[in-house]
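User: Last request for today: this protein with D-serine, please.
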Amino acid sequence: MQALKQTDPEIYELIRQEERYELDTVRLIPSENYVSKAVLEASGSVLTNKYSEGYPARRYYEGQRYIDQLENLVIERAKNLFGAEHANVQPYSGSPANLAVYFALLKPGDKIMGMGLPHGGHLSHGWNISITGQFWKAVQYPVDRESRRLDYDAIREMARRERPRMIVAGATAYPRQIDFSIFGAIAREVGAFLLADIAHIAGLIIAGVHPDPVPHADVITTTAHKTLRGPRGAMILCRKEVADRIDRAVFPGLQGGPHNQTTAAIGVALKEASTPAFKEYGRQIVRNAAAMADELMRRGFDLVSGGTDNHLILIDLTNKNVPGKKAAKALERAGIVCNYNTVPYDTRKPFNPSGIRLGTPAVTSRGMGEEQMRQVAAWMDQVIRHVDDEAAIARVGEEVRAMCRDFTAPGILQGD
Ligand code: DSN
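Assistant: Here's the final one, the structure of the complex with D-serine:
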């Protein structure tokens, strides 16, 4: 980054510091990852210079001879990797992708039925403060109060009662597998579209460690930057019958020109995700989460739903008498980065909730395994037990940094 260093040393220095921070910390935010150097190079390429409103061979600007080839290549890779009939690779990120799907298939005021935000759903699944909960009429399903898992009988009952035009299956804070075949059957029974938002689990689906929504959903949205380990961006996969409506909703309905540098980087990530090494990566994410969950439970932590079977762990800290925000901030000071999170039926406010959310995609990208996950759980236990003791937190921090030095991270410090 020599040109950047010369032109703008302040920005250069902040990027270098972030790079060092990402290397020196145990990054457990389940929606984050480390992209490869190849993905970074595509993201930072001259493709950022080009406007390409429209779709391959149907553009509103001239000069698309390479961009059309690029977008077609990435579309084909997306279709092949997921086994989808159609792919749109232009959405800027997950929320715009979901918005485009609603805009494509629903009329204003139609009813959508998604998982409630406090129960693990996403804002864009119809939560009331999101445009998706105001422009469309939204009803939200919870998790079961006891098991804190999806209750498919209750979801079916709600769908029969509410007759939504679209059902959304997907989550951002749900540690269990989602049964897309049941969601598909419910949607068909009530005449609703099924949207599967697989942003968190796309990489796990590719790796074969999470059920596949493709046979069951009319439309699938995913971000590229979570378990899929690509750049910040998104894709919509769908059946042929709705493809034109989806494409028109993304452009010209919602967006302007696609971010071609992101399209290219998504393509690189899709190529990387088609390798046997990536499948093993996905399996290891799940093994790592299971090991961390096991060690946390052994140490008396209350895991929502009693564990995990994906990449994500949600801890209810009520029994530890430490609020989620205080815990997350103390952990960060020890170099363990996670986020505070509401837990289902939380009695505390979202800005200072009872839980923290963890995930293993990023640490697995560094080659950390079950042994390190158990060690991290032990450190978390120490920090939370001594949450007001800065010296104890600092001691854990030194150990965390020492361990991090043993693991490189994709895309970092491999030269300019
Ligand atoms: N912000 C993402 C997450 O952290 O899960 C969801 O969009």
